[in-house]
Amino acid sequence: FDDISLEKWxxxxxxxxxxxxxxxxxxxxxxxxxxxxxxxxxIIALAKCIYSILIGYFIKDxxxxxxSLTPVGKCYAFDNEGGSQAPNSSLLHRxxxxxxxxxxxxxxxxxxAYQYMEKNAELNSIFCxxxxxxxSLQLKRVLKLYKGFEGVSTLxxxxxxVGETLKQIISAYPSIKGINFDLPQKIQKAPSHPGxxxxxxxxxxxxxxxxxxxxxxxxxxxxxxxxxxxxxxxxKALPPHGxxxxxxxxIPEVPNSSNVFKRFCAIDNLMFLAHGGxxxxxxxxxxxCKSSGFTKFHVVAxxxxxTTIGVIEFYK
Length: 316
Fold this sequence. Notes:
Elements: H1 3-6, E1 9-15, E2 18-23, H2 28-36, H3 43-58, E3 64-69, H4 71-75, H5 86-89, H6 104-109, H7 113-119, H8 121-145, E4 154-158, H9 164-172, E5 177-182, H10 184-187, E6 196-200, E7 212-216, H11 224-237, E8 243-248, E9 250-251, H12 259-275, E10 280-281, H13 282-291, E11 296-301, H14 303-306, E12 310-315
Parallel strand pairs: 4-5, 4-7, 5-6, 7-8, 9-10
Antiparallel strand pairs: 1-2, 1-3, 8-12, 11-12
Helix pairs in contact: 8-9
């Protein structure tokens, strides 16, 4: 009931079946009243207290007032298809708490992030679910604007987790054969999906063959040298004129004061703190493309247009 979480909600007036305009109410005072005597109450008594205070605040003049999530709040609630940012948002936050070293996650947990998850089955399960939930939200927007999956026969999703990304893509393009490629311990948890083959391995050693390879939010985990090594393996796995589809933030070359750019900066900081990685500009992605042997670079959509992950193609 802290102020921050309560201020993510708005109120809708409803009188019978008539809906009025949205209006927001400062809930801080309500939160303080609730918390003031919370320690004295049992759970049931506290629930009754919350109910009575909210009734006092939000029902008067014969109007029924109910809650509705704001656009920001909706990102943290699960939608009909199970998409949510909530599991992902709290996963790696502890890296922000200690800024004295270059490998901040390792400083907090004693080892790099992915190695830590290899040794912690419960966290690995949480991570896979977190990626699946956030991916669902982002991929909906990508599939609306990007038509580059048309004509693809075999699509390899490198770092695909439990296969949720491929599942969404194949539901839109049923003719695609999907290969979900990730570390063996992640593949072991992957459920069966029609049209998807799960393969375990190390992307820095080799990548399964396909006429298109998907890298969704993979590059931002790694420094340039590691990205180039991965992309060269992708290059080897592609036929002539095959392509890598990169879904990642494409941040502006010149900083600005927009809220979208501030969000990009926060994510960039998180990737640095958690993995030593970074978000990249269009020019930085083009340098990766050329350094790994690809001949053509095409930005389909920048993150400024989508307000989320951008879409880039590297052609062999």
